[in-house]
Amino acid sequence: MTIKNLPAAPEARPRAGIQCDLSPKVLEAWNPGLHAAASDAANSISIYDPIGDDFFGEGVTAKRVAGALRSMDPTAEVTVNINSPGGDVFEGLAIYNLLREHKGRVLVNVMGLAASAASFIAMAGDEIRIGRAAFFMVHNAWIIAMGNRNDLRELADWLEPFDSTIADIYAARTGIPIDTITSQLDAETWIGGRDAVDSGWAEAFLDSDAVEEDSAQNGYRMAAKAVDVALAKAGMPRTQRRELVNELKSSTPSAAGGGTPSATATDTPSAVAIDAEPLRITFDLP
What we know:
- The chain is of the alpha/beta class.
- The chain has nine helices and 13 strands.
- Strands 3, 4, 5, 6, 7, 9, 10 and 12 form an eight-stranded mixed β-sheet that branches.
């Protein structure tokens, strides 16, 4: 198959007052230390953190992916390594479009987790490979909202086209009937490596030695993730959590270098590592 036959995602931005956030359950399941065992090759993009600005003030954005692709031969094969809990649905759809439109072949490797927005970014691959112990996680867009019944009905209607678009992308890429996909999104479905290959979410397994865990550089990120999970469960909005974690990071000298060095690079000509997070949309209603 070719990705050129996949449906394009609509260009859309959130309405005023909308925030995208992590699902605490998915964040808990995500191991940010998993990455490709080999150094990033030329023409590779690594999505190893939340999509959209994360609690480090970093993360994958369509702007950064577009810059990475511009630095490459437009007809060259691109390898996209993913280990992400998902994130901003609008950034995710834009990134999917960028990869879908790339003239060269796109190879996607799911190293650990491709959840929520990261899962439909993965669908832009001409070939998708997944680790045997890795997972996809798919679900509908979900919100935390305040308002009367009329406000909530309006928000549900506004969300429905995005769910339909994402379901169409999954169905076109996997060959799974749209009704089955819709049921999987309604149920929030975790798809392990074996099931992914058997059912069409991926074509092949990654070699067992293709993935490794960087425990040396993972300590700070795991600690920050634990703090973020706790604050999310307590109901603190993502923007406030990020500000708090960044304040703690800036006040701890050793933490400044705790992240993956390539994760903050913006001007690498041939190998671009990009940090990427699942979907909660918060509507602040009057």
